[in-house]
Each structure stands twice: as structure tokens, then as C-alpha cells.
Amino acid sequence: MKRGWLCWTIVANLLVLVGLAFAYPQLMISPGPLVAGHTELATDCFACHTAWQGATAQKCTSCHALPDIGLRTPNGTALPQRGLKTSFHQQLSEQNCMACHSDHAGPKLTKHSRKPFSHALLLPAARQDCETCHAKPTNTMHSALTVDCVQCHQTDAWKPATFAHATLAQDTSWRAAKPATRRPVTRCIPRSRATARSATLQLPGSRRPSSMRNSLCWIGTTTPLASPATSATTTVATPVMGVTSTRPPTSGANTTKKVSSTWRIASSATAVPAVNTREAGVKGVRVGTAASVIDLPKSALPPKSDVRLLSDGNQRENRKSNMRSARWCATQCGRARPGGAGNVPFDFSRRTRSAACLFAGLPACIASAAVVAQRSSPRIDKMSCRSPSRRITSR
Amino acid sequence: MQARLIRREVLPFVLSLAALAAAALLIDAALHLLDIVWIGRWLGIPGTLLILASTAYSLRKRKLIKAGKPAQLLRWHEYLAWLGSLLLLVHAGIHFNAILAWLAVWAMLITVGSGLTGKYLLARSKRRLEATRKQMRDQGLTPAQLADRTYWDSLTFDMVKRWRVVHFPITLAFAVLAISHIVATFLFWSWK
């Protein structure tokens, strides 16, 4: 008897609950309240849902006509333009409203995992035309460029980005700015703009020429310099090491000259576009300077033709490059050089060599040497072993 | 001598219920940490199927089917329903979205609780209480003394017994609420 009453009570409650589900579906069934613009549809589930099929794009576009989306409301009122982002809905490859929109405010716990927009939904032509929605960076690195953003950046995130110097060859603004005979050689920033991170490396200050004191430069490549002391020498300056490597002129193939004006190309007057690494927003590398470590953009790396670090993925080439890198590291860190130590002139002072090894990271060198011994040949960290093919000399 | 029902019988029951909750929370947390919460959305299907499979015992008990040994089916009933409930708890998560689904989860928890009551408490409590009473009678205690000594145990047993009565009706509530939830899902959700 008792149990009978219990059963009937539960059945009555269930009937009430199911009735409530029909009367108040927005509370009983809906996974969350609707967005502000659709509050009047709260009790009318079938305004957006088709029975047994879910919400469909056809239902959306019956009110929101595609040519009007982002431009005017379904009532015909013009929408205020918000910055650069004009309506891109007309440029979508398919009409899948639910790929980006959910009218129900979802569970708070999973809100963060929503991805409201995907560039993959854009038509290929619109996908290439970044500047219809995104403002071009105003920093000196980007402002003059005319090449497409996608040459270096992906659509899913600004970083990480890749940079190849060959990209600059396609850039009309860059070609116009640089005479054909002079390749981009140096990246300099005024010292005041350098972002000091930590004083991890101390190079002898007395060895820094005065021209270096007002700016930080970190790459020099094959540019003939009108220097009285090195008129026949191509200067390669790497403040990381505090040394200058010289490339002998083609006529004197087996001699290496010391360069007296080590930091000559480092003066701010001759600097090519200054790069503030924070503005650039490009994933960079860490470089030690006289008293600090700063983050440098990838564009600061030497071009492939000079140091052969940016391997093209060819495994054999990688291995050869790594072998060179390991040898170079070994010599710089005072280790025995395979095949005879006397062939490469290097006379680092003890202090400079220590600093170089500290920066280059002895563990990275040893690890890379170990990697060479393995059958796989991943690339060696670009900054840990900078220039395997260069001949190095100190001042 | 006391029957010590609470320590010997009630605690293991509470622990098995706690194990269910803890396992559900752990799996849910893992899904969130690994950012694979979408799996939880689909766990409702295997959970429902497991619970449906577990009802073989209920059907056998009421002679609606004739195959299978009741004792064996009861063991399967326990395992499958516990596992199915675990999956459904993960599926539900700690989300307060639609009331209907939330009520279904509560009905399921009460069903599981009442089922575990049957498994852990009733049979063994009865056995223990009877053994204690018999021992006391053997010691020559009068019925009044006996009733006095087993007062708390008797009270606990009566409460447990009442709790057990809930199992079938609340299962009915769970079934109706779960079916409503499933129908609503089919009606409004697109399986894409």
C-alpha cells in the first residue's frame, strides 16, 4: 500500500516535469539562455531548430540575408562599421553558421575551448587578403614590406612565423630601397631600444669600438666595405662572439686577415631598418651583447648562402651541416678538432672564448655532436652553433 | 556484543558510492585537462547501453525473461549499472544547463544509491542483526533487554529497509527523465 502511494507520487511528479518541459523548454531543455538579440525567440525552439535535424543555416538566413550580414540588421537598419573588420560573411566558402555561432550561452567550463572563427572558412582569395581585416604592423620591419603576410605568417596565429631572405627578393619595396649591388647586411638597433633581459654575458668592454656603443648590430654578411684597413676583405661581424670573421678575397684564398675595424658596419648611421624585437612580434632567437641578452627576430639570422644553417630539410645536407657545426663548436670550445687543429686559425683570448662557449652553450654543442653520431640529423640550433663554415679570427 | 552495523555495513556502502563520485570527477578532470571534453558528450550513449544491459536482472527477477541465472545476473546488474552510471556522470559533468537532464542525473544517483543499499546493507545487515540477537538470546537475555541493546541497530536497519523501497519507483523516474532527455536531444540536436 505504502509503496503504491510512493509510485503514484513519483508518476504524478514525472507528469508535471514532462508538462513543464513543454511549457518552459528554455529552462527544462535548453542548454543555456539565448544571445541578447534573440531573446524574443527564447520560448520558440523551432524558430531556429528543425525537428530531428537540429539548427540549420537555412533557418538563420531566412532572417539574416547573406548580403546584409555585418552591414545591416534583419530590419534594414545599417550597422555601424567597426574598424577594419568589414563584413567577411559574403566571402565564406560555405554557409555553416554553426561553425562559429552558438546562440545558447554554453557551459562556462568549456567556453574557453571555443574557436569562434576559422580562416579556413574563407574563400581562398579572401584568405590571402589579410589587410581587409587586419591592420598592418606599423613597425619598421613590416611597414615597408609589400609581400603577402602569408609568406611568413600562418592564419591560425601571428606567431610562430618563418622568415626566408628569399622573401625579400620578391618584395618590391625592398628592392627599390636597396641597390642591387648591396645586399641587406646588418640589423642594428639603437642601444636605447634594446630590451635588456639579463646580464648573462660579459664581453670585454674595451674591445668594443666606439661606433658600437650607441647601437647594437648583430649580423654582417657579404658586403664589400670601403674600409681603409679591410678594403679587400668582406667583413662579417657577430657581436655575439665579440669577434670578426674575415673572408679572404678570392685572389688570396689561403690567407686570413685580421680586421682592424671590427665593428665598422655596426654604426647606426649605416644601419638598415632598425628592428625593435618587441614590435616585430616575430619569434626570435637570443643573442648576447656586451652586457645583456636580447631577443632577436629570425630575420636577423644570416642568409643561407653564407652560413648554411638554414638547411632545406635534405637529410644528407643536414648531416653535413651538422658535422660542420659540431666541428666548429668543438674548436670554439677548445675541444680537439677532428682532422687536425692547426688548419683553422682561431686565437680567441681565453675570456672571449669562454664567453662564446657560454653563449653558444656547451651542452648544445655536445648534444649536437651526439646527434651527428646518430642516424637522424635534426638541425642544430641556429644560435648555438652559428657559423660552421666561417673562418674565425679575433682582433 | 553489538552488531555494529554502521561501521561494518554502512561505511563500505558509502565508500562504494564515494568511489563512483571520485572516479567520475577524476575522469571528468582528465578530459578537461587534456582538452578532449567532446568525448564526454558521447559517453552518454555507452552509459545508457550499459544500464539497459544491466536491467536483464530486473526482467529475470520479474520473470519477464527466463534465461540466465539470477545470482549471476545480479552480479552483472551491479557491475554494469555502476559502470554505466560512471559514464553517465562523466557525460553530465558538473554542468547546470538544462533542468531535465540535471533531474535525470539526480534520479540516477538515487537509483544507484538505493541499489547499493540493497547490495551492501540489507542482506548482510539482516544476517548480522539476526546473528547478534541469537547470540544475545543464547546468553539468556530477556526480550526487553535484547530490544534495548539492539535499539540503534534496529533503527538503522529500519531506515535502510525504507531506503531500499525507493529503488524501483525512482528507477521509473530515472527512465522517464532520461528518455525525455534523449528525445529532446534527438529533436533539437543535429548529429554532425
Give a nutshell description of this structure.
Helices cover 27% and strands 8% of the residues of chain A. With 395 residues, chain A is an alpha+beta fold. Chain A is elongated.
Secondary structure tally: strands of chain B: 0
Strand runs of chain A, count: 9
Helix/strand order of chain B = HHHHHHHHH
| Count of runs of 4 or more consecutive helical residues of chain B | 9
Q: Percent helix among the residues of chain B?
A: over 70%
Please state the CA-atom Rg of chain A, rounded to the nearest Å.
Answer: 32 Å
- Which regions of chain B have little confidence, pLDDT < 50, spanning 5+ residues? none
In percent, how much strand structure appears in the residues of chain B?
A: under 5%
Main sheet makeup of chain B: none
Question: What is the CA–CA distance across the termini of chain B?
Answer: 64 Å
Describe the structure.
- The complex is a heterodimer of chains A (395) and B (192).
- With 395 residues, chain A is an alpha+beta fold.
- Chain A is 27% helix and 8% strand.
- Chain A contains 13 helices and 9 strands.
- Chain A has a 3-stranded antiparallel sheet, with no helix packed on it. Chain A has a two-stranded antiparallel sheet with strand order 1-2.
- The N and C termini of chain A lie far apart (105 Å).
- Chain B is mainly α and 192 residues long.
- Chain B folds into 2 domains: 95 residues, no CATH class; 95 residues.
- Helices cover 82% and strands 0% of the residues of chain B.
- The interface between A and B is medium-sized, with 31 and 28 residues.
Key traits:
heterodimer, A: 395 residues, alpha+beta, 3-stranded antiparallel beta sheet, two-stranded antiparallel sheet, 9 strands, disordered C terminus, B: 192 residues, mainly alpha, 9 helices, 82% helix, 0% strand
Question: Which secondary structure elements does this structure contain, and how are they paired or packed?
Answer:
The complex is a heterodimer of chains A (395) and B (192).
Chain A: H1 2-23, H2 25-28, E1 49-50, E2 54-55, H3 57-63, H4 108-111, H5 124-128, H6 140-143, H7 166-170, H8 172-177, E3 188-190, E4 215-217, E5 234-238, E6 243-247, H9 277-280, E7 284-288, E8 293-297, H10 304-307, H11 315-332, H12 350-360, H13 362-373, E9 392-393
Antiparallel strand pairs in A: 1-2, 3-4, 5-6, 6-9, 7-8
Helix pairs in contact in A: 11-13
Chain B: H1 5-33, H2 38-42, H3 44-54, H4 56-61, H5 70-92, H6 99-138, H7 143-149, H8 151-165, H9 167-188
Helix pairs in contact in B: 1-5, 1-6, 3-5, 5-6, 6-8, 6-9
